[in-house]
Amino acid sequence: xxxxxxxxxxxxxxxxxxxxxxxxxxxxxxxxxxxxxxxxxxxxxxxxxxxxxxxxxxxxxxxxxxxxxxxxxxxxxxxxxxxxxxxxxxxxxxxxxxxxxxxxxxxxxxxxxxxxxxxxxxxxxxxxxxxxxxxxxxxxxxxxxxxxxxxxxxxxxxxxxxxxxxxxxxxxxxxxxxxxxxxxxxxxxxxxxxxxxxxxxxxxxxxxxxxxxxxxxxxxxxxxxxxxxxxxxxxxxxxxxxx
Length: 243
Ligand code: ADP
Ligand code: MG
Description:
The chain is of the alpha/beta class.
């Protein structure tokens, strides 16, 4: 799907931890149906940026506006209601519930909440789309790693987010799982989802992102199509400096 109007506007976003400026005057926009990558060396401020957008952290200054709503002062659950969803590390999966129940729980706390039979149908359909339908009645502990990742994604998607935040969702996958994982995100892209993707896997960035922002030491140093920014000498220098 071709990107539409701007849906998320990040303006002059800054986050200080004591004397450390983890995110320094970052500005970028994300358009509807766009997959926007955020890349940069370790410690460059990518996760902090994602945490500011989801509300897990509060900005020191600057603003985050979704569809005309200023998210900057809001608590995470309010931000989720406005339509920002993120994947969590696996500990956030509810261990005593089945796969299906975990997704239903995601739907209950959603942007467009639903309950009962409707929620069950919705969650089942979502699991089918993520090729987890056959395992919906299993307990979480019987899932393989990639299936846990699928579940994490299903839970985030259950909230029908306007913007989905994926912070190194592909991390820890083996090479064959990685192919599946990239395909799954490509499918979401094909559905016209709006996604912000933080990734170290450059193949994923190249194949999935419309545009990406490059961060170094908290600052945006480049923005553009993946092929463009990845051949930018300043970007290459930032990565080599990290190694
Ligand atoms: P990235 O995701 O790009 O690897 P982070 O956003 O996690 O980078 O971290 C950016 C910088 O902010 C790092 O120097 C990190 O140590 C620091 N940092 C991140 N979170 C905190 C925190 N809660 N308290 C203090 N410093 C933090
Ligand atoms: Mg990180």
